[in-house]
Amino acid sequence: MFLQVAVLLTLLSHMPALDACPKCGNMVVPYPLSTGDDCGNPRYRIYCNNGALEFLSAPGIYYRILSINPGAYKLVIRPPLIGKNTCYSSDLSVGGLRLDENLPFNISVRNTVMLFNCSDNILLSPLNCSSTSYCRQYEEIEEGSGCKGTLCCHFLKDSSMTSHRIRVRVGGCTAYTSVVDVKPKDPADAWNYGIELQWTSPY
Ligand SMILES: *[C@@H]1O[C@H](CO)[C@@H](O)[C@H](O)[C@H]1NC(C)=O
Ligand SMILES: *[C@@H]1O[C@H](CO)[C@@H](O)[C@H](O)[C@H]1NC(C)=O
Ligand SMILES: *[C@@H]1O[C@H](CO)[C@@H](O)[C@H](O)[C@H]1NC(C)=O
């Protein structure tokens, strides 16, 4: 009897964990996302820290998960904060956002990325750094006020560029933000700020 139970338990513990994870705070954690070894699919690891869901970047920075759309295999993380007095993103010291290329997540093509406090040589790149760039509107709202008057640019994160990185550095651009599916006619404080990530299906 004891032996049978022991064998059964051993079998169960070697079966793939297929159940969805429990809620984190008030957010549902849909499969395959996984907040622990005993639920979800461990390749899709995210973190439940003090009741808040977070995504961990390759250099070890946690980004708050704002929303998840399991049907579209997408989630949105909060862009890093930008200083009030300096135009520095909070992840500047690690070079911005970088995803581990061995994991099944990438940065989706619906993000409009804005870069701030760029050095002049950015003007040689195909970014939109004109006086009508969306980044000028962001500078006018409170969150972007630390970057007011700096050289800034925007670009659509399309498939022609790396899908695992948004880079900032001292001597390049020192801050960034991102808007999902930008609505040019809406005011900048009504935009959907976030970085949309997508994952490959586990099947
Ligand atoms: C812009 O970045 C440079 C370094 O590239 C830094 O010296 C300067 O303080 C930054 N400006 C602001 C407003 O943060
Ligand atoms: C830059 O972006 C703005 C806003 O989308 C657009 O009106 C303008 O034509 C763009 N300029 C260039 C040079 O692409
Ligand atoms: C990102 O991942 C999705 C889902 O696997 C894939 O369809 C898409 O081509 C990837 N995008 C890039 C730019 O690699």
UniProtKB/TrEMBL annotation:
Endpoints of the signal sequence: 1-20
Keyword Signal: yes
Protein localization: Membrane
Top-rank lineage group of the source organism: Eukaryota
Membrane topology: Single-pass membrane protein
Pfam families linked to this entry: GUB_WAK_bind
ATP-binding among keywords: no
Entry GO MF terms: polysaccharide binding
Annotated coiled-coil segments of the chain: none
Keyword tags: Signal
Any single Gene Ontology cellular-component annotation: membrane
InterPro entries according to UniProt: WAK_GUB
Domain Wall-associated receptor kinase galacturonan-binding residues, every copy: 21-76
PANTHER family, A to Z: WALL-ASSOCIATED RECEPTOR KINASE CARBOXY-TERMINAL PROTEIN-RELATED, WALL-ASSOCIATED RECEPTOR KINASE GALACTURONAN-BINDING DOMAIN-CONTAINING PROTEIN
The protein, known as: Wall-associated receptor kinase galacturonan-binding domain-containing protein
